[in-house]
Structure formats: C-alpha cells, structure tokens
Amino acid sequence: MNSNLSPINHNPNRRKFIGQLGLVAGAAALLSAPFAADALTKPDANMTVGQIIDLFMKQVPGAPFPNTVDTLKSGNRDIVVTGIVTTMFATIDVIEKAISLGANFIIAHEPTFYNHADETTWLANDDVYQYKKQLLDKHNIAVWRNHDTIHSLKPDGVGLGLLKQLDWVNYYQPETGNLLSIPATSLSSLIDTLKKKLKIEKVRYIGNPTQSCQKVLLLPGAAGGKRQITEMSTKKPDVLICGEISEWETAEYVRDAQAKGDKLSLIVLGHIASEEPGSEFMIGWLQQNVPGIKATHIHPGNSLSFM
User: Fold this and answer.
1) pTM of the model
2) Are 264 and 234 in contact (CB under 8 A)?
3) Domains and their CATH numbers in the chain
4) pLDDT tens string 136-180
5) Residue 225's closest CA among 18, 2, 1, 3?
6) Mind listing the pLDDT tens digit for each residue in 238-253?
7) Contact 162, 200 (CB under 8 A)
C-alpha cells in the first residue's frame, strides 16, 4: 500500500489499537461476548446489506465517518443477504468460496482493488480487475470494506481479536495501552509462540534470539515508521511486534539502536497475520447481532510464500 495514501497519516481512527479498552470494564468479558445490538432489535433472515452495515455503524461512536474508505466496493445496499463471509481481503479465491457457500455479502478489512481508496479508473483496461469485477457482478455479491469503522470501536475490534488469539487478554493494562507486560521469555521462544498462535510459517526479525523479552509493544497492521519509531523511543519496549514496516525506516532504527547498545528487538508478523483476527471478531459480532444469517470467516492466506 502506498504510504502516502495510508490513513495513519490522515485519519486518526485508522490504527488505533486498544488504548480505549479502559473505557470498557473487563476486556476478557468483551472478548467472549462482542458488543450487542439494541435489546429491541431482532434481526431476521430477510435483512439487506444496508441494514447490516447500518446496524454495525450504529454501535460505533461517530460513524459513519466522512471521507472514509468503508464503502461498498461492489453490489448495493438493497441486496437481501443470503450469507455473509468475513475476511481480510476479498480475493478471487475468497469470492469463489463465498459463492460455493451461497453467501452474497463479503465484509473485508482491506482494499479489494489494489489501492487504499479502491479507485478503479486506472484499472479500467486491466484484465485482472475486469475478471474480478465481472465475477462479483455475475453473482450479485456485495463487498463492504470495514476498516475505519472497526478500528474506531471502543474498544478496537481488531485489537481485541488479536489479543484473544494470542491469549494475551490478561496482560493488557489500561494505563499502559499497547505496551504489554508478559512473562519474561527469550526472543526465540516469543517468535515460536507467535508463529504457533497466529499460524505463521515464518517471520522476519531483528535481535538476539536469547534476549529476554517482557515489555512488548504491539502495533498490528501498518502503523507507519514514524509512529513505530516514536513509540519505541518513548515507551522503551524490549521488542516491537508489528504487522509490516517500511524497511528503510523501522528496521534501520532498530539496527542502529542495537549498535548503540540498546536491548531492542523487532518482530514483523506480516499485515494479514497481525490483523486477520479482526475478521474473526466480526464473526462473533454477526452471530450475536444477526443470528438469522449464516456467517463464515474465510482466511485469505498469505499472499507471499517463503523459500
């Protein structure tokens, strides 16, 4: 994603993590029971795409937001929903799986058409774009991007999903936010835990595998180099765990910090691995708020392979 388009620079709602968790009592309870709709709301099996979007936004302070990327990328609000798929990316494979499930509403966290704003004019003559668009149109599938909205939940739905998947809910403290204090472990053991819990084949890292890690700065997604470096500088973690980096920024800062003598390490999970738990959070929300419609989480898998 083009960093100049990244909302971390323009939209303060984009990469909020779990700083507002203290506004809600009991993070563990929230994880086991996603926030509920109005007690009087009784969704049925004849809901439209627009009604489900509105129901979600009703529970998010300030939503819908101006200039948001959380718009329909295909389909329309009046489509009666036959099934829902949540995912990080509405890839062609995910779309085909949705079709096989009889689902016509995909809730994706990231862009569908290869750029942050999902602008398509520049892709008008591209055969990959046309193939994907025609597949969606043929099966009358609505794709809604839920990015700014889920990140603006109080607490952040993506952050909650990640904490749950890592079994780190109890390490969160409102006063320290995304700086977690975990039981001391080696960098190597921490990497093994992350790979196991998040089902990652390999990660990139900087650091001594034997270094003790206890203070963990957790920044999923693409927070951007300035934020990553600023928070490392002010919060002094043993390790930054993040989704993705610009290699000329964060990685070089950590390398120089180590040359200076700081015990600072870096673990890069990958964007999908770090934020896909937000799509699983959405399954819990849908099951609780739209129980009459079958909802399925489909992991898009990693776009990159390792040799």
Assistant:
1) 0.83
2) no
3) 21-155+275-297 (3.40.1390.30), 173-271 (3.40.1390.30)
4) 999 999 999 999 999 988 778 898 889 999 999 899 887 888 899
5) 3
6) 999 999 999 999 999 9
7) no
